[in-house]
Amino acid sequence: MAGAVGEARGSGWTWRPVARDPLLARAFHSCTELRGRFYLVGGLLAGGAREPSGETVVFDPAGDQAVRVAARGGPRRSHHDAAPVGGRWLCLVGGWDGSRRLATVTALDTDRGVWEAWTAGSGSCPPAGLSSHTCTRISDRELRVAGREGGTRTQRRYGSIYTLRLDPGARTYCYKEEGCHTVSRSGHCAALLQSPGPHPGHQLLLFGGCNSAEPEVAGHWSHGKIKEEPPVAPHLMEKLSRLVSSGQGSLQGPRGLRHHSCSVVGPFAVLFGGETLTRARDTICNDLYIYDTRKSPPLWFHFPCADPGLKRLGHRTCLWNDQLYLVGGFGEDGRTASPQVCILDLFI
Asked: Which keywords label this protein (predicted)?
């Protein structure tokens, strides 16, 4: 995979392999950075599998090594989401356990190496069941959950938005359904980005998971409501800025994309891969999309790829140490899970 497999007027990009381990071969898992390590939980080990994995695997990007965590009580989950809390807990929210969709919260206490089933607090109004949803950290005590509830026979025709409040000390959680709804989405992604325009703040945007190409706002916070984090990837931000300057921006993003990855890098949302709903064959993608919020209205930049070996579905991307990592996912056949970890290389 040497060289630029995606190109735009003299610029290019590729995913460069940096590690390979059979423990990492899975899709529809969660992959969360916590204390400089990537925690992979559950997922499907092969296409067509009905039973999700109950493994927890930790990948150390500094040493390019993966190890299985011997934590007691590991949950079997796929199509779930996870968020780091308090620099200590990895909170899993919802997902498929092999027989039903859940809305429970299970947390790995990384200090003690133990999985804990947290308890729903009084007044909690949980969803009917969640899978292929998103769970975004707003603070150490608040997550925002968005997605379609229930199975194919029971799901609503719209997507619900929930605030999920956590109390790590008491090991409890509480769902509150917000008054607004979204388009019915499944397999979408979420990005917490600074609001463009004259009124600073943050907004949570949902991309994909339905036929629409339009992003949708699932929450808005005024200036100062969300703690500002210092830039964690200044060099990658600069390279992304130079890459989009070589491309042609558009007001319309990808239509009908689902089970793709999304990572926020400063003012950019970086989307990769997934499955398109717009064609019947060759549905698994290897395209890179960048959503640039530096100006109003924000612009989309599309960087296609010619290498079918980079097609991915149900994968994850993680940001660490000024690099964007690609972990797992099914490949071009939609059945074989990739054991590789790759880094996004940009050639400007």
From this structure: Kelch repeat, Repeat
